[in-house]
Amino acid sequence: MVIGVGARRGIGAATAIRAAAGGLHVLIAGRTQEKLDSIVAEIASNGGSATAVVCDSTVATDVDLLFSQVGERKLRLMLYNVGRNIPAPFLQNERELLTGHWRRCVLGATLAGQAAVRHMLAQEAEDHRGTILYTGASASLRGKPLFAGFAAAKAGARAMAQSMAREFGPQGIHVAHVVIDGVVDGEIVRSGWGPLGQLLLRNKGEDGALLPDEIAATCWSLHRQPTTAWTHELDLRPYREAF
């Protein structure tokens, strides 16, 4: 299951396609039916299977409906990939902006995590009941000017993932937090940011941005880790990116 799927050139879609290639039936959730349908079609054209569900991850009834689609299948992998890093000067972090960050990064992540844990614990006991992944950002680790609200929410999600890992790891659920530290060469930057996005990618230069398919490959490798060597947190960045 991948929550937070938009355009094909994005982390959510890329991970869904990788999971389907690995033999899983994939439930993909996002806000736009048309975008979801295009990913389902691509997965099907490559011999995989997927189901699209329009979902607002911050609404409990939407999340319940999404997880009801698991049916009799086992829930093996869940990726939560929701968040919008909207910059704002500290004094302009109004209640609506702060609440939006918190709802997407913490509330939605909690609702999805609770539902995933319930499903995995109900499955037949085994060493590895399933994997729950959360995508983070450099803001998960440190706050920078203009990103106080986003950083506070992302740091909260990271702390939540740590708590989950410590509570449910001994029960066979692998919880991991993937820090995406750098610009992602995806649809949001290329189209959503307009000329600014194109300029940013040009300034980064060749191999200066993360590629969604490569992030997806790392997520899949986390899911495939043996139980004797689980990673809880890793960070991904281009070799040119300072840290």
Estimated structural class? alpha/beta
Number of helical regions:
8
Rg over CA atoms? 17 Å
Q: Which sequence of SSEs, written as H and E, runs from N to C?
A: EHEHEHEHEHEHHHE
Are there runs of 5+ residues with pLDDT below 50, and where? none
**Distance N to C terminus:** 31 Å
How many extended strands?
7
| Shape by Cα distribution | globular
Strand percentage lies at 5-15%
Strand count, sense and closure of the main sheet? Answer: 7 strands, parallel
The percent range for helix content is: 40-55%
What's the pLDDT, averaged over the residues? 92
Instruction: Trace the largest sheet across and list its strands.
Output: 3-2-1-4-5-6-7
